[in-house]
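Obj: model holo form, ligand = beta-D-glucopyranose.
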Amino acid sequence: MTRSHALLGVDIGGSGMKGRLVDAVSGQLLTDRFRVPTPQPATPPTVSKAFGAILEHFDWHGPVGCTFPGVVGAQGMILTAANMDPAWIGVDAAALFGEHDGATEVVMVNDADAAAIAEDAVGAAADVPGVVLVVTFGTGIGSGLIANGHLVPNTEFGHIEIDGVAAEVNASSRAKDRDGLDFNGWIPRVNRFLQTIEDLVWPDLIVFGGGISKHFDRYRDRLDCRTPVVPATLQNEAGIVGAAMHAAGNS
Ligand code: BGC
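Output (holo structure tokens):
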């Protein structure tokens, strides 16, 4: 295998920051994953230091694709940070992370958009034509919308209002834990969210992602929406793979 398509993919999450070298064309993972805890508070300088530690671990000198759990505007400007430190808003993350010598170029992408890119290219939605909606359930709810292979960035469907609050407030997996719900208690909230979105977007397929998707078999029969729903296949690696593919221009 040639290393010419190797890129460093970095995934910034609420509790961990993970990096891995990825073949950005095939989506193949080239190294083990290196994880550092997300510093608390997760401000731009502390997160940038942890980003530097990931570069150092891989002794990397080259382009980097990096996710962020908020709206990512043009050139890597962070525009929202619902579940991160508000100090991120207005920060040019690509420029900040690009201050590290090892990062010759940094391309930022929303975390759920990265997951959607990866699932569409090499995961659960590979070869599925039409409109694919990837939803990720975690601390928040992320969404990534792909139409015939093209990403519509920053859809933010987790913030659609249901009963006067952002959907993620009650239907994320953090809300499940916070309210002490089992799957029976949580899935009706998820159904309400999926039904709301499918009435607006009419996707051909919904890919159910986030850490909780590994238990998909335990609640799949209780999912109730007209769109076919399949579990994500890349799970924890989707962000890293999608970020690398996006940075290489393969999305
Ligand atoms: C953010 C999204 C993000 C999602 C999952 C939401 O609160 O607004 O940008 O994709 O959480 O991390």
